[in-house]
Amino acid sequence: MKHYFVSAAIIKVNDEILCFQRGPSKFDYISHKYEFPGGKIEEGESPEKALIREVKDELNLDISHLDFFQTVEHQYLDFKITMHAFKCIANNLEEIKLNEHLNFKQLTYSELSELDWAAADIPFVERLIFESNG
User: pTM here?
Assistant: First the structure.
């Protein structure tokens, strides 16, 4: 079974979070689900460098102020994922371009639970909601 190491961006805009809807996938269980954007970490690359590269490629966004949030291990039916999430900000939101995603939403912390999330992202969502209530 394949094991992927990836980074994910929790992009903050004031007191809200950007959430992105995946496009179609060969795996139905992640098609059209919402996620935090990011991607695979290449050999010799740090999780932070991978995230900066992936967010630029996927969304045309320059991110900064990366702050480690949490690591999640999740096993899907066909692969395993180790995902490192970082809170960050986007420096050029007006230039956002959806190169791989279908849609995005800017939501308050309490609204995050309204979306249909990819399973590996759910622990991040739960922690974000919990911490915003604390």
Answer: 0.95
